[in-house]
Design goal:
It comes from Reyranella soli. This protein is an alpha+beta fold and 214 residues long. It has helices at 46-49, 121-135, 196-208; strands spanning 55-56, 58-63, 68-73, 78-83, 87-90, 94-98, 105-112, 140-145, 151-158, 168-176, 183-192, 211-212. The chain has 3 helices and 12 strands, in the order H-E-E-E-E-E-E-E-H-E-E-E-E-H-E. The strands form 2 sheets. The protein has an 8-stranded antiparallel beta sheet with strand order 1-5-6-7-11-10-9-8. Strands 2-3-4-12 form a 4-stranded antiparallel beta sheet, with no helix packed on it. It starts with 45 loop residues before the first helix and ends with a strand.
């Protein structure tokens, strides 16, 4: 729950049949600290990373001109472009990444929809958002199916966690494996409420640059 914490205006002006997320002209450079990828070689913070079994993920490419590094999460067979200045770790079931100030925090993992007791990505999105709002009545959730079949869920008014100065907005992006509705990828990005608009644009960049080895 360290990601959770703010949404009412997120979908305002968001097309009902949007083809995809839109970075709005922003690039990874708008979120990066240009350190030539040095941050990814720092030691793992076990508290923010999720525990002592986390290890640093492998950096495949550093593109200083574009402001990102391509990081391979070997345990889940996903390669993700992340802003320079971030850190990335993983364990046997998930990848974790976060900004230097830890205000932006991301988790990505594979989902077995049948194991979760749902039939596909749409059922999973509805079940998860309903479960969270039932447990935390103050949290508001809205979902939208994108043109490519992925599902975006936005949680608003999520309580701040340890070290946070304000409530947070959390984005869930549920991606279903092509040709197999029983498997998918869940990418969760949590940001401060005041950065909701920027966070949605970063999510667009992350989605546009993800590589999944299904």
């Amino acid at each position: 729950m360290f990601l959770l914490a703010g949404l009412g205006t997120v979908f305002a002006g968001f097309p009902a049949r949007a083809a995809d997320l839109d970075a709005g002209g922003l690039t990874f450079r708008d979120f990066a600290i240009n350190d030539n990828g040095a941050s990814f070689n720092r030691g793992v913070d076990p508290i923010i990373a999720g525990g002592p079994n986390q290890v640093s993920s492998r950096v495949a490419v550093v593109d200083s001109a574009q402001g990102f590094a391509r990081v391979q999460f070997g345990s889940i067979k996903v390669e993700l472009a992340l802003p320079l200045g971030w850190q990335a770790t993983e364990d046997w079931e998930r990848g974790v990444a976060y900004s230097l100030d830890k205000h932006y925090r991301l988790i990505i993992w594979r989902v077995d929809f049948a194991f979760e007791g749902v039939k596909d990505a749409e059922h999973y999105a509805a079940t998860k958002s309903g479960s969270i709002t039932a447990r935390r009545p103050s949290v508001q959730a809205q979902a939208r199916k994108l043109g490519d079949g992925t599902f975006l869920i936005v949680y608003e008014n999520v309580p701040k966690g340890q070290g946070d100065s304000e409530t947070r907005t959390v984005f869930d992006l549920v991606m279903q494996r092509p040709g197999n509705p029983k498997e998918g990828i869940l990418m969760t990005l949590g940001v401060p409420t005041s950065d909701t608009a920027r966070g949605l644009k970063l999510l667009a960049l992350l989605k546009q640059n993800i590589r999944i080895n299904w």
